[in-house]
Amino acid sequence: MAKRPDAGGKKLIDVPGYVSQALVTSLPPRAPPLAVWRYYHGRADCENVIKEPQQGFALTTLCPRSFWATEAALALATLTYNLTVLFQRHLGWQTKVTIHSLRFRLFITPDLIAHPAGKTTIKLAVPPRERDWWSRLWDKILAPFPNCNAVENRPAFAH
C-alpha cells in the first residue's frame, strides 16, 4: 500500500501494508493465477467504456422522432468514441482520456487557417507555457511511422 495507495482490494487477512483480492472463476482449475487475473483485469473496464459515450455525447437524452435517426446518432457517437481511442493509442497515452477532457485540452484551442505564399498553415492560439507540449503533440501526430516516443496527455505547466 505504500507504493500504490490507490490499489484495489480489501484487507482480508492481517498483513500490514497489503490488500488482497479474491476471484471466483469458472476457468479450468489448473489455470495459472496470474493468467486468471489478467483475463478478468482486461474486462474490468467494460462498464466505463459503455458509460463514457453516454455521458460524453448525452446519449441518454437523445431521442429523435425516427428510429433511424436515433440509430444514426448512436453510430456517429460510437464512431467518434472509437476515433478518440485510436487517437490516444497513436499518441501513446497510457492513461485513458475522456471525451470531455479531450474537448477541453485540444478541441477548444482557437486557431486560424491561413494561406501565406500558397501554403496552408494552421496558426494555434496556444499560451507560451503550453507550446512545447503542442509542438511534441504535432510531431507525434505527423510522424509517418508510429514510434515509442509518447506525448504526455496534458501539458506540464511551467511556473
Name the poorly predicted regions.
Answer: none
Name the strands of the widest sheet in spatial order. 1-2
| Cα distance spanning the termini | 31 Å
Number of distinct beta strands: 2
Radius of gyration, rounded? 22 Å
Name the features.
2 domains; 159 residues; 2 strands; 5 helices; mainly alpha
Structural write-up:
By secondary structure, this protein is mostly helical. It folds into two domains: 1-44, no CATH class; 46-142, no CATH class. Helices cover 42% and strands 5% of the residues. It has five helices and two strands. The protein has helices at 33-42, 46-56, 67-91, 99-107, 131-142, and strands at 111-114, 121-124. A two-stranded antiparallel sheet has the order 1-2. A hairpin with a 6-residue loop joins strand 1 (111-114) and strand 2 (121-124). The protein is extended, with a radius of gyration of 22 Å. 0% of the residues are buried. The mean pLDDT is 78.
SSE layout:
Blueprint: H1 33-42, H2 46-56, H3 67-91, H4 99-107, E1 111-114, E2 121-124, H5 131-142
Antiparallel strand pairs: 1-2
Concise synopsis of the structure shown:
The protein has 159 residues and is mostly helical. Helices cover 42% and strands 5% of the residues. It has a two-stranded antiparallel ribbon with strand order 1-2.
